Sequence to fold (409 residues):
Amino acid sequence: MARINDNYLKLAAGYLFPEIGRRVREFGEANPDAQLIRLGIGDVTRPLPSSIISALHKGVDEMAEASSFKGYGPEQGYAFLRELVAEHDFGSRGVKVDPDEVFISDGAKCDSGNIQEIFSSDAKIAVADPVYPVYVDTNVMAGRTGTVDDQGRYQGLIYMPCLEENGFLPELPTEKPDLIYMCFPNNPTGTVATKEQLKTWVDYAKENGSILLFDAAYEAFISDPEIPHSIFEIEGAREVAIEFRSFSKVAGFTGTRCAYTVVPKELNGLDAQGNPVSIHSLWNRRQSTKFNGVSYPVQVGTAAVYSPEGQKEIRGLIDYYMENARIIREGLNESGYETFGGVNAPYIWLKTKDGMASWDFFDHLLNKAQVVGTPGSGFGAAGEGYFRLSAFGDKENVEEAIRRIQQGV
Ligand SMILES: *Cc1c(COP(=O)(O)O)cnc(C)c1O
Fold:
């Protein structure tokens, strides 16, 4: 029989969400009349804005006529969308990004997961703790780690604990990493990084020959004008960073699928002889071989995000979710909970009371308020004693959840 990739057997069994499902199911069977409110998932709930729906229809109709039909598209995305991204998401903020540095894709999960394969199999990896699990699991699959311990830490990875003491910001590692995964605004903690803080990382990467893999999937939720939206707002970042963006959360594209990755042409890695090699050309090669691009109708739909109506409509979506975040944050604070995030990010990271363990708080919240959230320890050992609530729910449900929490949790 064919031998499998044994590295997959090292994975900590996708424990978090199945375990949440199991506990919720059990609770539902024991309490069939309970009205559960789910504030755990990282998925949006509002429908796509009408300007995007119209554009999607238009893209589909073009596929119906021989004169406008599209077959295989460019793997990197259509020029019309790459140009819109470069101009609106970067140029308008005074950041230089060329359209051909923008790689349109079907997800920031896929891109942030796939990027590691263009680097050496013995590349040293640094991640924050707690962390978006994709960065870790894809490196486990690729064989860059040893086995996992009972707290969920893999041997061979550099973990950067993000705790209340350091404002949930990673500190410069003592051991030198080749690749450093960063996510701001952060999932799960809702933390953002200032220009000065990011500058420290860009300088560190430059000095140590590291590459920053910067996940900005939540940049549109930033409300503070001082907080950078892109790593490329930091001087020198074009030589050391790759940025991942997504239309999933900002425009409701979790089921429609469109995202992009920016790989600057100044960014180099080293080959075995120590010669510089363009990362842009490697990623282009990778995408051309393994990816067929995003469907034409979806790219036409995505372009509508940048129209004046589209901009107004997605602003409405963001405001809707950030109002939920405010309700959750303030409601929890009134109930005596210490919270973090929820201002420039759609996640509220709450500290449990009296050091209650994350999973105990999960059960407590489920039993006392029939509210489902996500245990912080599921995102990493340093998340123990914390809990993530998401602002992506329905406003009435959010208000009801907070009422219940205030009454009895
Ligand atoms: C939701 C999310 C993404 C977006 O992923 P898509 O594949 O584009 O839907 C990326 N990074 C983080 C940290 C996320 O939470």
